[in-house]
TrEMBL record:
The lineage of its organism: Archaea, Methanobacteriati, Methanobacteriota, Stenosarchaea group, Halobacteria. This is Uncharacterized protein. The chain crosses the membrane at residues 15-34, 41-59, 79-97, 123-143. Keywords: Membrane, Transmembrane, Transmembrane helix. It comes from Halogeometricum pallidum JCM 14848.
Length: 221
């Protein structure tokens, strides 16, 4: 369902996500109508297969692009990628929990005692969880492209608009570290606590100079 924004580029993302959530709820309710089949599936490890099958469409393109050294594609690709990764993790976790519950119900209990979990095991588990998060971030970085924003120069600073109802923020001129040109673009480099940079593409030298002059003049005010 997270692939719908890519399959329907002309439909607003909010409508697609609402439809996706509704579709997921309906699918989950339909699956629960046959709980015995679901129990058999998770006991046989079917949830692991489903989780892997869900994640592969998100991981394989990222791996291919990483080896090729290419970062292309629309920015909206990040939504289905993270959606697939999240869904795969959710399927695996839910299946693991259900497997334990089903086996508790079906099998004979021979011993039940309170114990303490090994700290070293917990450390390894937490480290794996952190590495998994880094892997998700790396895949998202490989598949994403620079976000398009709109810069508006004012006397007191820049208004950065990245779109959406909460996409505007104000950047005072004291937060701008340097304005420079390079190749076919003008770069506005910012200071901490948001050490990012904004690239204004321009293939005409005169236009680049005019942009730099305007930015630097406003910055001095």
């Amino acid at each position: 369902m997270f692939c719908l924004p890519r399959l329907s580029p002309g439909v607003p993302a909010e409508s697609l996500m609402s439809g996706s959530i509704l579709l997921g709820l309906v699918a989950g309710a339909a699956v629960e109508q046959v709980p015995s089949r679901v129990d058999e599936l998770v006991v046989r490890g079917g949830h692991v297969v489903l989780a892997v099958a869900t994640v592969l469409p998100a991981v394989l393109p990222g791996a291919t692009r990483a080896f090729d050294g290419v970062r292309t594609g629309p920015e909206s690709d990040a939504l289905p990628v993270f959606g697939l990764l999240f869904t795969g993790d959710l399927v695996w976790a839910a299946g693991r929990i259900r497997t334990a519950r089903v086996r508790l119900e079906r099998e004979t209990t021979h011993l039940a005692r309170s114990t303490a979990e090994s700290l070293s095991h917990r450390l390894v588990f937490d480290a794996v969880a952190v590495l998994g998060g880094l892997l998700l971030a790396a895949v998202g970085f490989v598949l994403s492209t620079p976000r398009a924003v709109r810069l508006t120069e004012l006397d007191s600073g820049l208004v950065v608009n990245s779109g959406g109802p909460f996409g505007e923020k104000f950047l005072p001129w004291r937060g701008v570290r340097r304005i420079e040109t390079g190749g076919d673009s003008v770069r506005v480099r910012c200071r901490s606590p948001h050490p990012t940079s904004y690239r204004i593409d321009s293939h005409v030298a005169d236009e680049q100079r005019q942009i730099v002059v305007t930015l630097r003049r406003c910055r001095r005010w």
